[in-house]
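Page header: ASSEMBLY MODEL / two components / 582 residues total.
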Amino acid sequence: MRIFDPHIHMTSRTTDDYEAMYAAGVRAVVEPSFWLGQPRTSPASFYDYFDSLLGWEPFRAAQHGIAHHCTLALNPKEANDPRCAPVLDELPRYLVKDGVVAVGEIGYDSMTPAEDTALAAQLQLAADHGLPALVHTPHRDKLAGLRRTLDVVKESALPMDRVLVDHLNETTVEEAKDSGCWLGFSVYPDTKMDEERMVAILREYGPARVLVNSAADWGRSDPLKTRKVGDLMRAEGFGEDDVDQVLWRNPVAFYGLSGRLDLDLDSGETEATATHEGNSILRGGGAPAAAPTER
Amino acid sequence: MLTRTELRAAVERRLDEAGRAWLDRALTEAAKSGPQAGDSGPASASASGSASSPDSGSASSPASASGRASSLAPAPASGPARWELDFASAGRHVRSARPAPGDPTPHDLPDAARILLLHAADADAPTAARLYARGTGAERRAVLLALPYLRLDAADAVPLVEDALRTNDTRLVAAAVGPYAARHLSPHSWRQAVLKCLFTGVPLTAVAEWERRARGDAELARMLTDYARERTAAGRPVPADLDRVLAQTAQTAQTSPTAATSRTTPAATTSPTTPTAPTRALTREES
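Prediction written out in full:
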């Protein structure tokens, strides 16, 4: 089973996680920029973080046989802090970078005017840079948040089919699907979705445009949830092709809209290490790379 | 060893038509604009970023460590020059199949394209420092690899090399110890760099002119011997490269430290991607 986790915050995870993810079949991840738990107080903190998502973290991932890309943005929560707002002006110089495959995570947290401004501005930035956008839906007041999000996207220069709306659930999936956006589901141990409900949604709505992620971060979360959904899909009668569509081909298709997705670990952005030398991973469905043997 | 012309020819052989057209256009553009046209600050709109320090980008960057870099003029309103955007986006424009066995081109085409761009723009030390400070891992590596190709005044770019040597990213460490470092790193920094390579598994083949610099170096010999003793005490193998360098330190220094060979064609290590790429970058290196 080849797995592309389209939303995971690897900066917060250990090398044990990388090893377990590789063993479970994860060969590619996208790390959206987000809040770090502790609020930032200056734009420079963001720039160091962005640099890390374009430098150290892809290197770390490549050492474990995993291709790493990122999405960059001013997150909704910190968009409310005027000290952080200048990040919006600096984003263009980052959005040209090879490793950036979308603008994100953007969207709403508390649905404030400052969040309105940041969301609209960053949808425009995505359109200007030929990038799709990863838009999360708020944890509180989710359905109202989804509707407001979709309205803002419709008014933006970015077509709905270049937008991935994330953290969906039973109450929001139908309206999101009707809008024509890509559908993201985060599977968590306690909150958001779980494996059983995820499989039920897949049974009802089908695998088209559906992406499943672990959204694992510094909170209680599990970087292997993608694999667990794949296993349950198989146990519940889904075919291998359906699993591959949801866990690999859909994320490749969505982030591939950027024209920057490079899943060949032997190429420039994620240079090979001896551990994975010669194993070009799964660009077109090739054999899985050999398991890492040493570091 | 490739000259710039040979490098370009070799790269073009491996590009498809679209890639060649892109590179040709980008190099023409870079040659026209030159480094000063690219001396833009952060994106133009950042003038409104009043909450940031006057130049938050360089305050903690290697650029500030370079005397020339700190004399940069304020950012013009026009944003980055086209060639600098090309430098950033080279990776998605020059992808290609891997080289055939025996192909002398650097393994990594984006590296090579970026080296050619920096050379075409006649990038000076402030420009190299700025692109490094604002670069991704791949861009920083390309700046380091390009240093021998650029017309730099003496040791202006040493802060970049030293910055890379502080990282634990073996791609950067390997790129940092090329011909430029061989000529300009101080004895102490160079010895530390050699030790770091042994530590992190960067192969000796990445270290330019190590034979010349190690020859007769008693202090390096002491450091290597201590390191070997430490490895042995821990029951761990001593890297084979260590013995090769140690043997060289026992040689008598014969020729001038700036041997003529160091100036001719500085392209020996354009690619850090040797067949024995680093394997242990995330081992128990000091953090």
